[in-house]
Hints:
Blueprint: H1 3-9, E1 15-22, E2 32-39, E3 44-48, H2 55-62, E4 70-75, E5 78-79, H3 85-92, E6 93-96, H4 108-119, H5 127-137, H6 154-166, E7 172-176, H7 184-199, E8 204-208, H8 212-217, E9 220-223, E10 231-232
Parallel strand pairs: 3-8, 3-9, 6-7, 7-8
Antiparallel strand pairs: 1-2, 1-4, 4-5, 9-10
This protein binds adenosine-5'-triphosphate (ATP) and magnesium ion.
Family: Belongs to the ABC transporter superfamily.
Keywords: ATP-binding, Nucleotide-binding, Transport
GO molecular function: ATP binding; ATP hydrolysis activity; transmembrane transporter activity
Amino acid sequence: MTQETQQQETQQPVLALDHVSYSYTKGGRNVLNDVSMAFEPGKMYAITGPSGAGKTTLLSLISGLTTPTQGAVEYEGKSLAEINRYDYRSQDIGVIFQSFNLLPSLTVAENIELSMDASGREFSEPKSDIIARLLQQVHLPVEYAKQRILHLSGGEQQRVAIARALSYDPHIILADEPTGNLDPSTQADIVNIFRQLAHEQNRCVILVTHSPAVAQAADHVIQLTKLQRPVVQQ
Ligand SMILES: Nc1ncnc2c1ncn2[C@@H]1O[C@H](COP(=O)(O)OP(=O)(O)OP(=O)(O)O)[C@@H](O)[C@H]1O
Ligand SMILES: [Mg+2]
């Protein structure tokens, strides 16, 4: 084991689920039942499992959009119930939704700037320089900054959604099915971008995926089952 690996393995979790249960209706069936798990920086996690197992529900709990019925989601050791969830969502976590949630009539740069402004962060460089670097990072030509979203392909929009999620430098990146509907080489490229974000920038990357190739590229695979017991496979 290298020293670098040893260092990575002793990292404190950035995010943890502590006996989390969730039901969409009061007194109804638990979609997630007593789930406890920890996520470390510098690692890429894949959450897999059949349709309806609760993967998107788990992401919405982690992103602070939904509150657990029981238990707690903890960021850096503090329950989301005790911290400012707006700050958490706009600064600490970058979410890439399956439907991208980009504003189609705005340009690429305008979409990214909206998230930068919402974070309330101060940036030490002009925003246009940061956006140019982000576009390079997701392998899009810099001239795309001025393109309207509605003129972009699905794979290109996926890259913009990643750039936007990175724009305010969050510790955690969440993505729901980030490679659905992409051709194999675009999928491989996007997966590599996520791996670099984890391994080279020490972010915690959590992807929901149905793709065995994406799961294989992750450091840890968390399998959700309809029996409601997650199994950590790796
Ligand atoms: N808003 C909602 N109200 C009530 N039930 C819901 C709601 N959203 C999801 N569910 C139910 O919760 C369960 C888990 O849904 P979830 O979307 O988390 O599954 P998933 O694992 O992401 O599935 P998929 O792979 O199809 O995206 C399903 O039985 C679903 O019907
Ligand atoms: Mg889902």
